[in-house]
Acyl-CoA dehydrogenase
Amino acid sequence: MDFGHSPRASELQDRMRSFMDEHVFPAEATYDRQLAEGDDSHTLPPVMAELKAKARAEGLWNLFMAHGDWGAGLSNLEYAPLAELAGQSIIGPEVFNCSAPDTGNMELLALYGTPEQRERWLRPLLDAEIRSCFAMTEPEVASSDARNIRTRITRDGDSYVVNGRKWYTSGILDPDCELIILMGKTDPEAPTYRQQSMLLVPRHTPGVTVLRDLPMFGYTDRLGHGDVLFEDVRVPVENILGGEGEGFALAQGRLGPGRMHYAMRAVGFAERALRLMCERATERTAFGGPLADRGVVREWIARSRIEIEQVRLLVLKSAWLMDTVGNAAARMEVAAIKVAALEVAHKVVDRAVQAHGAAGVSDDTVLARLYAITRALRIADGPDEVHLRTVARQELAQYKKKTEPTTGAV
């Protein structure tokens, strides 16, 4: 592997780093204040609209999109460090129009959408004129196993009719949300991984009801995590994404790059937490000297730096493999980074919380929020156990081939 970044990637990193320091970090407090003072906690704060306009004007826009002429055309390896930089702020990814769930939805539309679907949905998403959400997880079943999904998509003439219930449908509470990409079953009798399909559902279609906004560890996100009921929701057959029975394959295609994005943002979380821990250790005095002189605090800092460097290299390797041999061939590494990056991020944030004492569990720093996010993301996009299962299965497959008995006459 070549551990150097391309000239273009290095230049973008320098520009994004400057933009984060000059605009994003200073705006965090204003963002929180405007959310708290607004009539609707899901409405885009004015400062975010300003930040988006500045980022777009500086060419720091849609950098995640690697498909066709839709985005910057960066490779996964080139985009990875940019995702890390944006991830150092909770509001960072949205500033650059690189936040979930829109990123994954835009990739789906770019790869599998018809020209009409792209014109109606992808173009305004790329321009940040609208937002979208992804409805897959269901409250009644273990949705990490797509075979369990119960939401039905039934063909009725020139329409599909949707009935079911989804929850943690992230983004649906944003007033700008205009599109739901929904995963449901079109044929329960088909082969296991040909039962599911994806459907493009306009947000305000009759029969779509948001029952409640779900918090994560007590925090309410601006985009919202909806508990959503679909009752006889009717959309045209032209709204199928890809085709009937292709939902599972589309979901796998969506999740590969998405997990790399999650992992690199997690490295950004960890870097932010480590910086706060070091600042606290040098500024805070206890028992006759700065915290930085205490052996245990030095160990926290040293272990955090080592772990961050290790996981960053693993994520970069995964991104490199995705670029060179494809997402399918990099499946084990992609599964591994989803586990490793969030574990490391959560561990580093936990140490930073401890170093801050009471301030660490308050809202005076970003640490409590990062603690909640890093813990929740170990469930979102597939729990750790699913990814560990994938890694173990790939690893054991090598040994099964070695131990298979030979056939033929003895």
Notes: The chain has three domains: 7-113, 131-241, 248-398. The beta strands are 131-135, 152-156, 159-170, 177-185, 196-202, 208-213, 225-236, 240-241, 285-286, 289-290. The CA atoms of residues 77 and 207 lie 42 Å apart.
